[in-house]
Amino acid sequence: GENVEQHPSTLSVQEGDSAVIKCTYSDSASNYFPWYKQELGKRPQLIIDIRSNVGEKKDQRIAVTLNKTAKHFSLHITETQPEDSAVYFCGNAGNMLTFGGGTRLMVKP
Amino acid sequence: GAVVSQHPSWVICKSGTSVKIECRSLDFQATTMFWYRQFPKQSLMLMATSNEGSKATYEQGVEKDKFLINHASLTLSTLTVTSAHPEDSSFYICSASGGVLGTDTQYFGPGTRLTVL
Prior knowledge:
The structure holds two protein chains of two kinds.
Chain A: E1 4-7, E2 10-14, E3 19-25, E4 32-38, E5 45-51, E6 56-59, E7 62-67, E8 72-77, E9 86-93, E10 97-99, E11 103-108
Parallel strand pairs in A: 2-11
Antiparallel strand pairs in A: 1-3, 3-8, 4-5, 4-9, 6-7, 7-8, 9-10, 9-11
Chain B: E1 4-7, E2 10-13, E3 19-25, E4 32-38, E5 44-51, E6 57-58, E7 67-73, E8 76-81, E9 90-97, E10 107-108, E11 112-116
Parallel strand pairs in B: 2-11
Antiparallel strand pairs in B: 1-3, 3-8, 4-5, 4-9, 5-6, 7-8, 9-10, 9-11
């Protein structure tokens, strides 16, 4: 992967609402798109990933969608909870894995 | 599965000393290990990639003589910050991939906070 842009940089939602984080990339050879969650002072944890031959993947309250034509992919969190508050990083990989700048999600109870 | 440990978790040292950080894959063989640096409220910056038994590949702008990386086995990589200075203070995180887990997904260690006085 090459440059990947992530938006928004901060996101504040009310508990129970949905949150969407979007990343765009430039390398058309990218074929793997992971999402990591990093809580304060802790390691990034892989929460979901998707490969280029799939358009959407869901795991309980989280889902990832991929639009290869437009070169963007998004993380969707439904029914947000306070424990979802963290920094989320998208990544894209072709020959190497590159991370977006991160999104600080705050879920207000 | 896919547990990566890092040691130490926090180190404080005087300027001019060298600090070694260990990264271990505990339950899988890591053919590739990555070293990242993370500043407060910023993203992960890749420093170098190392394959077991080979010399590390450093990213542009990262001094290889300053940040010595050794990947001597499939479960251990070390990063040595030589002659550390206050500007080297940062959060250093390793990640590992490979073995039965495949080569795409990286699993991160808990990080090492380095404070250089």
